[in-house]
Each structure stands twice: as structure tokens, then as C-alpha cells.
Specification:
The protein has about 200 residues and is mostly helical. Helix content is about 85%, strand content about 0%. It has a domain of about 70 residues. The chain has ten helices and no strands.
């Protein structure tokens, strides 16, 4: 009986969220966003995406505008996006949150069907909900370790480039081209942002 109540509650909440999402898609701002996104996709197919378009698109917290606007109001969402980028992931924060919620609810339902005891299924659901966050934290820690190991090599390359008469920005670009990841990606981002202004 508890599983049936849980399923009905989940379906009602999901239906409400879907209804709000559909209702929010009817306003004029949504149409304007849709036109802009179509322009970005057309430019991407032609291969002439400007740096400004890439930067704007990469800062979206969700590909659904309503969820993006909701997440902008939460102070932790920008920190979570930074956490994901430090892990080297280009996944949007809303996708990780959705994956975590689906995994947690699914495992809770499966554990409820097998064990038929809520005091077992609820902790299992919470534990499985944490798996995507733990995976991101593990990737972030591993990427930081790789960066720290290779950073002296990048400084040496930068020093040699400046001593040879190259500009500092040219040295940063050389690191982006010649070093391995994650150094190359971070220095490439630094170089591109500096060029962008």
C-alpha cells in the first residue's frame, strides 16, 4: 500500500512539474529564447560559432529555460556548476540532479519491492542518490591531482617561452597546445577568455 501511495505521489508531482513547464513555454520570452537557440544551432552547423555564443551557451544550468531560471535563484547552483567544471565535465547541473533523483527514486522503489520494509528501502534510495555526486567528486579530485603533477612542467615551458622573447599570452597558448590534459584545457580556457576580453 505504501508503494502505491508513493507511486501516485510521484506521478502527481511529475505531472504538476510537466504542466508548469508546458505553461511556462507559452510566453513570449520562451519564443525569443527558442529563436536564439535556433540561431546558435544553425551557426554551429555552418561551423562559424563565435566565442561569445559558446560562452553564453556553456553557462546554462539547464537546457530547459524554466529550470534554468529556477536554478539561477538558488545560490548553490553556481557553486555546483563550478564543481562540475572543476571535474572536467561539460554536463549541465540540472542533468546531474535529474539523474540523481531518478536513480534514488528507482532504487527506492526496487528496494521497496524486494525488501517490503521502508526502513531498508529509504536508506538505499538516499545512498544511490549520492552516487552521481560521489562520482563527480572523485573525478574532480583525480583531475586536481593530475593538474598538480603537471603544473611545474607548464611553468617551466612558460618560463622558457618568455626567456626566448615570446609574449606571456603566447606562452600560455603554447601550454594549451603542447601540454596534456587537464593543463591544456585550463590554459586554453584562460587564453580564450583573455582574448575575448
Amino acid at each position: 500500500m505504501a508503494i502505491l501511495i508513493f507511486l501516485l505521489t510521484f506521478l502527481v508531482v511529475a505531472s504538476l512539474i510537466f504542466g508548469v513547464w508546458l505553461f511556462a513555454g507559452a510566453d513570449g520570452a520562451q519564443e525569443q529564447i527558442r529563436k536564439r537557440m535556433n540561431a546558435v544551432r544553425k551557426a554551429e552547423r555552418r561551423g562559424d560559432v563565435s566565442q561569445s555564443l559558446k560562452l553564453v551557451r556553456d553557462e546554462m544550468l539547464s537546457s530547459v529555460p524554466l529550470i534554468h531560471r529556477m536554478m539561477l535563484q538558488w545560490s548553490w547552483s553556481s557553486k555546483f556548476q563550478e564543481f562540475l567544471s572543476q571535474a572536467g565535465l561539460r554536463t549541465k547541473p540540472a542533468k546531474i540532479l535529474l539523474l540523481s533523483a531518478v536513480m534514488g527514486v528507482g532504487s527506492n522503489l526496487l528496494a521497496g519491492l524486494f525488501f517490503r520494509k521502508e526502513y531498508i528501502s529509504v536508506p538505499i534510495g538516499f545512498a544511490v542518490t549520492a552516487i552521481p555526486f560521489l562520482a563527480v567528486a572523485w573525478k574532480r579530485r583525480r583531475r586536481f591531482r593530475q593538474f598538480e603533477e603537471r603544473f611545474p612542467e607548464a611553468l617551466d615551458l612558460l618560463g622558457r617561452a618568455v626567456r626566448a622573447g615570446h609574449a606571456f599570452t603566447t606562452g600560455v597558448e603554447m601550454i594549451a597546445k603542447e601540454c596534456a590534459e587537464p593543463l591544456a584545457g585550463e590554459f586554453r580556457t584562460t587564453f580564450e577568455e583573455q582574448n575575448f576580453g
